Each structure stands twice: as structure tokens, then as C-alpha cells.
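#lab-general

N.A. 3:47 PM
ok so I finally got the sequence cleaned up, no stray characters, all 265 residues accounted for. can someone with queue access submit it? mine expired

B.Y. 3:52 PM
send it over

N.A. 3:53 PM
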Amino acid sequence: MENTKRKKRSKRKTPMQKALFYTGIALCVIFGFMLVCNIIIIVKGALYPEKPPSVFGISPMVVLTGSMEGDAPDSIAAGDLIFVVRTDPDELNVGDIIAFGSGKSINTHRIIEISADDNGERIFITKGDVNNAADPSPVYDDDLVGKYKSKIKGLGDVVLFMQTPLGMLLFIAVPLLLFIVCDMIRTRYYAKKKALRQKRKQAAMKAEMERLRAIADGGQVVEAVEAEEAVENVETAENADAVETAEAAEAPKTETAEEKVKVEA
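B.Y. 4:20 PM
back already:
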């Protein structure tokens, strides 16, 4: 029963072990998701170079210029990482920020007017918030990439840095090396812990064997003492029988002597 309790206690993880375990799971999920997204973006970028790659309808983009900087709540600064969501053109309104193709580049500007060209086709007139004039070319439905949804301030610079040789070294090689080192340390720690547990188990088994041997030796001593007592009892009984026999043998001789005295008398 005691051994079972000890095993249950040994299986319980400390708060630090639990924190490391759940942190590891969270990091694996995050990095796994990022890896899948990067693979999708790379494959789509190679298959459709004329369109920005997207994951589940969301296109991450890095802002390179400051044409949308300002005091507006949805302003965008250079170096931000923005997320553009594929949207039905019919749902767009004046004031929305859209991403659209302009030659070989993608622009992200605000809609200032929705109208139609000479052929009656819908066009979006866009303008950067800090620009003095509207964009020279209207945006057609086919040019539309999506609607600006959210941003992560300054992360775009990190993404661009990751594409450089030094960035790839710091963000790929170094984490991989740290992972290998941590795994080696963890493996060594658990190996030492296992060896210590095995050593304690062997010590406990040895102590138990010594205890059983002592009990066995004690039983043998008791049996030897009992045997000696039995031999002494037998010898005592034999001596008593010998004495009684001797007394019985002398008793008739005494009576005969007494009878002789009587007869002589």
C-alpha cells in the first residue's frame, strides 16, 4: 500500500513541470500553425505570382510606405504587418481601406468615392490619407485583393528582417539550436532522475533482503535454543529415571537386612 502511494506521488508533476509542459504545448501549436501558414503562402506565391498569397482567405502584407499614416483609428504606418480579408466588392463602402493590385505592386488606400466608368463598370476611387490627391488609376473589381481588417504594429519590419540571411540565422538556426540543447538537457535530467530512482529502489530491495535475512537468522537461533533445551530436558529425565532405578534396586536389600536382624533376634 505504501509503495503504491509513493508511486502515485512520484507521478505527480510539480508546478514548474506543469508550466513547462503547457508552455511547450502552446509553443508547438503556435509554431506549427505558423509553419503551415508559411508553407501555404510559399506554395501559393510560387503557383500564382501575380496575386498575393492568402491563408483561409486572409492575406498578410507588410506596409512599405507611409501613405496611410495619420491620426485615424485605422491608420497604417510603414513597418506594420496588416491582414487583408477577401471581400465581396458589393459590401465595400466609402471610407473602407482596401488592398488592390497596381501593376506589380499592391497598394492599400482608402476609398473616397464609388462610381462607374464610361462603360458603366463599377470603379473605386482611392487615396492615401497623407496624399494630397487621389490615385491616378481607378480600382476595378478584378483589381481588388481584399479589405483591410487589422494590423500588428511594427511586426512587418520583423518579417522583412527574417527574410535576410542574418534574420534567418537568428529566427531559424538559433531557435533550432536552442531546442536541441534544451532537449539534450531534458533527456540528461530525466536519465539522472531515473538512475537515482533505480538506485533508491535497489537500496530499498537490499534493506528488505537484509531484514528478511535477519528474521530468518533469528528463527534459526530460536530453533537451536529450543533444541538445546529439549536435549537438556531429555538428559534430565534420563538422570531422574536412573536415580529412581538405583533407589528401587537398593530398597529390597535393605528390607532383607532388616529381616535378617529379626530372624537372628
